[in-house]
Each structure stands twice: as C-alpha cells, then as structure tokens.
Design a protein that fits this description.
about 25% helix; 5 helices; binds S-adenosylmethionine; alpha/beta
Length: about 220
C-alpha cells in the first residue's frame, strides 16, 4: 500500500510529507533511536496544535509562540524528553505543562496513560478540544500548579516537566515509582535538562543532559 490514500486531502498529504522530513532531518539525524518515539513523531499532526498564524512553520526545527506568552516546544526537544522518559505501553506518565497539547499527544502514543496538568485554564481547555478531536482518550486533564496537583497518591513511571523551576523539584521524586524517571529543565533564563531516576534504595541519580530554554514554571506554593 502507498503512503497516501486517494481520500487524503492535499493539505494533509503535504503536512504528512513535512512530518516525515522533520523526523528524518531533525530527529533521526540527531540522536533519537527509540522507534516508538520516532513513530509517534511521525504520526502526531503538529500543525493541529500551533497557532493559525504559525501553521506554515509547524514542522520547523524550532519552538513556536502560543497564546499567553507560552511556547510549543521544538520537535527535537519533545522527542528527546519523550525518549529520556523511557516509554512503554504498560507505563503511566505525569506531564506538567500541557501547553498546546502537542507533547501530550506524543506521550499518549507511547504510554498507556497520561495525566497532564496545565496552569493556564484557557490553554488546557484548547488542548483538550484538539486532543479530543484527534481521538486521544487515555489522557486525564488537570488545571493548576503541577507541583501540587493532582492531589492523589498515584505514583508514575515517568514525569515530564515542560516549564522550568529555578531549583530541582525534589518533591516530585515522591510521585515516581521505584526505577521511575523525572525529566525536568532546571534554572533561570537558560536551564539544564535533567534526567533523574529513583533508585530502589531510595536514593536519586541525576544526569545533566544539555542546555535548554523553557518558560518558567509558575508557582502557587
Ligand atoms: C513550554 S510550554 C509547554 C509546551 C508543550 N510541551 C507543548 O508541546 O505545547 C510550558 C507550559 O507549562 C505551563 N506551566 C507553567 N507552570 C506550570 C505549573 N506549575 N503547573 C502546570 N503547568 C505549568 C505553562 O502555562 C505552559 O503552557
């Protein structure tokens, strides 16, 4: 079977080609090797999540502005954080910073369940509408400060934070299962992306991966 069916609209065919080129040139050519992550990046229609005025740049190698001074992350960073999160279809993930919902969709492709928290209600509602339209039904949405909610005792296999706290958020390690991973940018202005793992003896291993630039994490506490 060919890549496109006759019923595909021309615009969708064009976006699909752009997505393939994005994965080949921006994601594979760097260091992403996890096939599930590559497949998710190939599948999720980023153009559905960007603001209309940036739709022609939807598959560019860059973050793009969202409403309320927020950003949709660069595709490579989404892929890299998703790979560091060690996905699996029997695992759960907590995402702090739903934003446009783009990374939420990528995570929903590679985890069995996604809980996502967004501080700005309008962004969460818009993301929920887009994700519902695309058929994602394994996502639980919360509005508020992700460091505080969801106020349940649930622990996760992975936590992905897409806004930057000024200090390493030690409290989030309690929300991880043993062996679980926290992926978080830490710092002010320019940050370091950390991959932290909760060890079976209760200790935490932290690896500094590379420099990133994220919007600051908002605080209620
Ligand atoms: C860089 S954007 C997220 C980009 C997202 N990965 C995407 O693909 O669109 C960061 C988001 O984190 C949200 N945010 C900031 N502080 C937060 C907090 N304490 N809890 C939950 N969300 C927060 C911001 O409102 C913003 O929407």
């Amino acid at each position: 079977m060919g890549l496109f069916s006759r019923s595909d609209k021309p615009a969708e065919r064009r976006y699909s080609k752009e997505r393939m080129s994005m994965v080949n040139s921006q994601i594979k050519r760097r260091d992403i090797t996890n096939q599930d992550v590559l497949d998710a990046m190939l599948k999720v229609p980023r153009h559905e999540f960007v603001s209309k005025k940036f739709i022609s740049s939807a598959y560019d190698d860059s973050p793009l502005p969202l409403e309320y001074n927020q950003t949709i992350s660069q595709p490579y960073i989404v892929a890299s954080m998703s790979e560091f999160a060690n996905p699996g279809l029997d695992k759960t993930v907590l995402e702090i910073g739903t934003g446009s919902g783009y990374q939420t969709a990528v995570l929903a492709e590679i985890f069995c369940r996604v809980v996502t928290v967004e501080y700005i209600p309008e962004l969460s509602i818009k993301a929920q509408e887009i994700l519902a339209k695309l058929g994602y039904d394994t996502i639980e949405y919360h509005i508020g400060d992700g460091l505080i909610i969801p106020a349940t005792n649930e622990t996760f296999d992975s936590i992905v934070v897409t806004a930057a706290p000024s200090k390493f958020p030690e409290s989030l390690m309690r929300r991880l299962k043993t062996g679980g991973r926290l992926i978080v940018p830490v710092g002010v202005n320019t940050q370091t992306l950390y991959l932290a793992q909760k060890n079976s003896d209760g200790t935490v291993s932290k690896q500094a991966k590379y420099s990133v630039r994220f919007v600051p994490l908002q605080h209620d506490s």
